[in-house]
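Recall the central idea of this unit: under ordinary conditions, the amino acid sequence of a chain determines the structure it adopts. In this exercise we apply that idea directly, starting from the sequence alone.
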Amino acid sequence: PNEMLDELPLPMNYGIIAHETAHRLFNDIVYERDFIGFLMQHFPKENDPAQISAFERATNRQLAFNEGMSDYFGAYLANDPTFMRFSFPADITQRRDLTTHHQVTEATWLTGAEPMISDSYDPYQLGMVYASSLWRLGEQEGHQIVAQALIESERALAPAIREHNQFEHREALNTIISQLPSTSRDRACHIFHDQFIALGTPLEECHP
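Accordingly, the structure predicted from this sequence is:
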């Protein structure tokens, strides 16, 4: 980032720098610093619309997760869930406010088929469901605990993504829960079920 969109230039906004650093960390852990190589490896060799659509949806799911993690780390490290307000116009900052109770109710969002803006996939809307639920969890259980669980979750999810382009939001949420201390898991289950309504059925890591 190298331009001023509102009042505070992006390179001077600590939350933005933390957000971008989290993207770099995700790239290092999951794609071994070679996202382009990853795309080239998994893009279908045959011109089959069904295979191309499946590839795009899997990649979209990863993008939404990546944006959610980065928004969370930006807020955590800046100690400000509205860190974007210093550098972006109000319409953007309102949508990216981690204190807003974002929810996903449409199953197509979990498949990576939607939401779309101007014929392009928008990873930020589902990303904000991740970010706001994680912020809510961190406020109750401790942000350092949540942040550590996210790093370990990225490491746990990386092999399936890297080798098979395999990523599902249900698996990601289950993985995050599994990486939390046992005393924090019930709270995580409650928050994830509340905000990821489109899951439909309880997460497997959430025991009755």
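Strands lie at 116-117, 120-121.
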